[in-house]
Amino acid sequence: MPELLYPLDSSKRFTDQKFVGHNRWHPDIPAAVTVRPGDEFRVHVREWFDGAIHNDDSADDVRNAPLSSVHCLSGPFAVEGAEPGDLLIVDILDIGPVPQEDSGPLAGQGWGYTGIFATDNGGGFLTEHFPDAYKAIWDFSGHTTTSRHIPGVKFTGIMHPGLMGTAPSADLLSTWNAREAALIATDPERVPPLALPPEPRDAILGSLTGPEFDRVAAEAARTAPPRENGGNQDIKNLTRGSRVFYPVFVDGAKLSVGDLHFSQGDGEITFCGAIEMGGFIDLRVDVIKNGMQLYGVTENAVFLPGNEGPVYSEWLAFSGTSVTLDGEQRYLDSQLAFERACLHAIDYLTNFGYSREQAYLLLGAAPIEGRFSGVVDIPNSCATVYIPTAIFDFPIAPTASGPVRIDPGIGAPRTAR
Amino acid sequence: MPELLYPLDSSKRFTDQKFVGHNRWHPDIPAAVTVRPGDEFRVHVREWFDGAIHNDDSADDVRNAPLSSVHCLSGPFAVEGAEPGDLLIVDILDIGPVPQEDSGPLAGQGWGYTGIFATDNGGGFLTEHFPDAYKAIWDFSGHTTTSRHIPGVKFTGIMHPGLMGTAPSADLLSTWNAREAALIATDPERVPPLALPPEPRDAILGSLTGPEFDRVAAEAARTAPPRENGGNQDIKNLTRGSRVFYPVFVDGAKLSVGDLHFSQGDGEITFCGAIEMGGFIDLRVDVIKNGMQLYGVTENAVFLPGNEGPVYSEWLAFSGTSVTLDGEQRYLDSQLAFERACLHAIDYLTNFGYSREQAYLLLGAAPIEGRFSGVVDIPNSCATVYIPTAIFDFPIAPTASGPVRIDPGIGAPRTAR
Amino acid sequence: MPELLYPLDSSKRFTDQKFVGHNRWHPDIPAAVTVRPGDEFRVHVREWFDGAIHNDDSADDVRNAPLSSVHCLSGPFAVEGAEPGDLLIVDILDIGPVPQEDSGPLAGQGWGYTGIFATDNGGGFLTEHFPDAYKAIWDFSGHTTTSRHIPGVKFTGIMHPGLMGTAPSADLLSTWNAREAALIATDPERVPPLALPPEPRDAILGSLTGPEFDRVAAEAARTAPPRENGGNQDIKNLTRGSRVFYPVFVDGAKLSVGDLHFSQGDGEITFCGAIEMGGFIDLRVDVIKNGMQLYGVTENAVFLPGNEGPVYSEWLAFSGTSVTLDGEQRYLDSQLAFERACLHAIDYLTNFGYSREQAYLLLGAAPIEGRFSGVVDIPNSCATVYIPTAIFDFPIAPTASGPVRIDPGIGAPRTAR
Amino acid sequence: MPELLYPLDSSKRFTDQKFVGHNRWHPDIPAAVTVRPGDEFRVHVREWFDGAIHNDDSADDVRNAPLSSVHCLSGPFAVEGAEPGDLLIVDILDIGPVPQEDSGPLAGQGWGYTGIFATDNGGGFLTEHFPDAYKAIWDFSGHTTTSRHIPGVKFTGIMHPGLMGTAPSADLLSTWNAREAALIATDPERVPPLALPPEPRDAILGSLTGPEFDRVAAEAARTAPPRENGGNQDIKNLTRGSRVFYPVFVDGAKLSVGDLHFSQGDGEITFCGAIEMGGFIDLRVDVIKNGMQLYGVTENAVFLPGNEGPVYSEWLAFSGTSVTLDGEQRYLDSQLAFERACLHAIDYLTNFGYSREQAYLLLGAAPIEGRFSGVVDIPNSCATVYIPTAIFDFPIAPTASGPVRIDPGIGAPRTAR
């Protein structure tokens, strides 16, 4: 309901809009809009690939997705009076797909997608096990969704922005670039890479032009990782009703937002694991003066999650420990333990007729929970993953009669490397 | 209500009971009790240190805790007809502290404890930041608890067994010992160690005696880590009403249980992070013949968590990424990201008057949730930790007026290394 | 997102729209729109008084509200193939206030209202105790709301249609008119009346005109009561995600909807107790052929409520029994028991500084739960009312230190009879 | 865990115990035990009929149940320092069936019962439709229960005391007796009666004897109805973790408790609708001095319900209005509307194979919710009843394929009038 301060026209490309957004982090990207503390406003958001992924039955688009162009962010929004050292309060008042556009070429126009990215073009959590590109299309019906590529499931979306944050200061940006370059230097040829350095190609920097554009493009940080400013945190609980507190590093805070998700499992495990969509987000901003010192919050977001998500009473859970598939014992490695728990869940679901890729895509998109269960019991971390049983239209828990078999349908479209 | 098949006398040591339990994993530890599929029965469980930790205001007992003696497990329980390849169904019917013993020297007799263990005697998740031993005592009142060492909080316990599992086969045991030895060999002098090898000293092996005791004691695996048989998973959601499916590796399955927790946060981050207690657990067992193949569950527990835990509507959450405190960028390391999120939460709580150790102990014991939020956004994993705001008797969310200050009381007892 | 099949222009009166709705029930009101089973579509809905209640600080509009003009319903929607004996499935896909109109003269344009109606113009549940007209205005911010007339509270709306249903058959309509006339005849002069007979004045009957209009206006049932066709059930749990099954009494089912509420307490106790608004509702319809017989559902709605409402973990509850305020013992009268429980809650809230009218208005509008607790313990029914404590920004439970006192602000506007 | 202050021996009758309880309300029944504010203690509680109902397949015991002997209450407990005008805080720390007695002749020893009482011996909510006596036995397994008399359902108990309260003052008792006598006088021969007058026969009055016994027995109020002192409120949400505030009418407050339920639906609609059991309850008491005036709570309990009950995400709901089965329109009668909603639910369940009596017994015992939905829409109240779908092991919602048919088994034992 709030005033639309940042419109996007669905018939035009992200770079041809009234306000041109950005796809890099830099303190010198000019604010597109200025708001005051207490203001409520609507922001249109483009899906992260600006329409490169289509509502069809091929994974070619995922195979060749233009990774240097992401994420299409709306903003920056300058907040009057916000100064470094403050905390920026951001209330997520509402969020949804593209209003009143029930079909169209853009994700968010009545549909969304989940992708498994090929190892040499993005990769993902389990890329060693899933090296090729796959895709699933999800159709929206109100707040619920189904997929022709993954039959037998239906669930309510817990919509959230995958990416939101404030602009880094010049110092903070330098810190990012330095530490990530140092990591890349340890294995520069790795596929997928260890990190993504600044990339002027395909950079979009708001209203910047000319030499200033070139300077900023050469310095600006990529948007893939979450960092001190929030960023691509992919926190599935940042739903409607959430209040987030971001550190302010530059005058005006310069808030940006993008990468809306219709739904996501904890971890967003398939890289493009959420159900990606464009749409709108209604925000309210406010400022806690000197909040970073008052509360000792100098980096990363603190937040009060919303309380409108669906509640599930029954879950089927899987556990994993930090032993590799080859049997090597690792030391307290929760990343590995979570990988093993997810693989257990995937293997389990194949007993019901799903392909491994369908199961993987489902775990990325459905509202599963991924938990740190034990992180101190040397040498094994224990991670657990919880799947709400109500999303399946068949019984999913183990019984003496064995698993039912569903018709997996046409399956998830695949394109090999 | 079910028949008490495994009694413990609170006035006697763990080794002086009618049934002597065990504190190592080995296929040849004889079953203490045999039950049939469908049976319901009560099991008494001793707290993991058999009374070495006291209800007092000193951390000396934690400083010197006898780690080679843990965990005091009840069992094994042989289940008639269970064979390798089956899945063992274990229903947790009920669980609680020591019934009708409201005070006494054993944790579980109306009280429990949480400990931060010294780096050279156990360590813990954040041992680099908390090298000394600390302790908090929690008093039970029905299903709620408070601590004189951490004022201002009160919460409902979500009681669960930290450790439950089936006996490994001889092959599986060999695999464990081999892979853990290989890890230890990479840094044999490390403090705390990378893993714990078999340790005959302080081994308790049920009814075994003589040369058989010595053989088994030399081979048997330590109980600290979770492994393929379940074990010390510290899954805080294994509450009353849960149904767990364990792989069966030996005839009779040989189920054992121990390490009861009155409450725990996801991760059990202070090593002895839960509120430790002895007490009882009521179980029902059943068997899915050939279940390991039917459902592809060949390792680690699958489970349906109980639905009786308290529901919280409001949470304060913290996020962290895989950058070290020194600013080094690590690659998709969720263990580190969770560490950073927990440190953020600890730092935050100190603004209200808590010491860092009080905050750390609280996060281990209270029903916090630890989530994998982003595990694919190279190079930064994002982890989040959620604290229910209702456990505090003062407002805990950031506001423009700044944090209230509480009286931290006597604080958590400390004993330096 | 679905296609807008039933638009309303906020700048025009309800009777000047492309489709003119209706405010009476009759089988012969022509369908405005025809849809097919499986169709999803958006419907605009006008607030029940078509703008007669204003966003101001006077209750004059409530005092003089045009009760003969309600409820402004959108529809009827004919569903192809639906026949008497079928069940009509209605999925509530989404619902909200007037999109993108953040301010304006109509409830639903960024605000809503709750009213206590005067005894001689509407009355209400506690009209003997509250004979005068009062009003509270609620401002919307995303899915939350606050009121300048009731300070100290904020809550998340659980939006729902207060009124939805299918058209009655001619026989059913006759039954209604006969039984309600018989009731009125027992005390025809009562104020407020026992029921409302057909009223041609102010009748709106879709596209009907001329003699047919006059015939139908003389026969058509008022929309105030819930009846066999659903109707004004005021079920606060018919939120987004709900699936409702309505009996079909006429060809095409002829579904109509209206009386949207931003929030409501169980019972809608102040008559106009919900937060009234206009807005939109997205529906999906389907048909179960012969469903009335298949499931024995021949009257009143059966439904699966949505699962997106906020979850509250803490409630303060009040109880009442079927003894009148004068001390007269009634026999198992849950209506009275609920009245007494509500009065207890109102009295309680005045200890914190609220006026009785503020408390009454709050109980109508906030997501309170009203329960039948005991209906068999002769002679006293027991009813209970539950208030979520989190909606208050001050502590509301009894403690030894007594209630805090808030500033009740300007209070609720009043207009005496 | 707290000290057992009020033991009962399962092998002895209620009147042969160390402490003899009571089954009437009177200020002069002497306190059995005195406790202090802050004390925690365990109380044993006998099932309300002291063993008259058996674990068998006949309803003869229900047919002939000794109604003049109920309810067997434990207490009174005097609280030091509590005076008229105070509020008594009662925390329900824990509650359960008879510990460690898994089988036996008393309800609570591993089993419980639900009964439909014959019209001329108790009656019930729907006694006009169910005039004969029926019974269902429920077997307990941990916190879940199943019934051989109602197959296809399983649910988690939300255990609670059906009856708890403080002693009335002499004045309050007189008020009760006067107003109930006045009601009885309006139709003294009614079956079932409108209310129950004092009944010396079968009175149990603690330690009273001789003339004092006779005097008190002649005056003391029956325990069936809930009244100003709390009493038989049958509030199913008074579960573990609840805090109740009772008005204090006599020195010491004289708290009593009984009528434990393993589970109950809102309304306890079959009269003996809950799953009746004996067992234990752990309480903590405290006093708010002058609390009745401080908070304006002079009658009926105020309470904070516990938050440990199971959460259900999916419900099937039924609605009803205040029109009689004969088609007579009543004015805003929620008791009738709830009756109609319950009848709709019962009729619905018979489509799946249940008998009407099985359905009725189930609605009394399972954790259904009964809500006041609309109480102001003249002339029809609207009431709704919600059944959690997860309690059935077959799909219960309407679909195009029609209802599945279950085997109703042996059915519910019946004994005709």
From TrEMBL, chains A, B, C, D:
<protein>
    <submittedName>
        <fullName>Formamidase</fullName>
        <ecNumber>3.5.1.49</ecNumber>
    </submittedName>
</protein>
<dbReference type="Pfam" id="PF03069">
    <property type="entry name" value="FmdA_AmdA"/>
</dbReference>
<dbReference type="InterPro" id="IPR054833">
    <property type="entry name" value="FormamaseFmdA"/>
</dbReference>
<dbReference type="InterPro" id="IPR004304">
    <property type="entry name" value="FmdA_AmdA"/>
</dbReference>
<dbReference type="GO" id="GO:0004328">
    <property type="term" value="F:formamidase activity"/>
</dbReference>
<keyword id="KW-0378">Hydrolase</keyword>
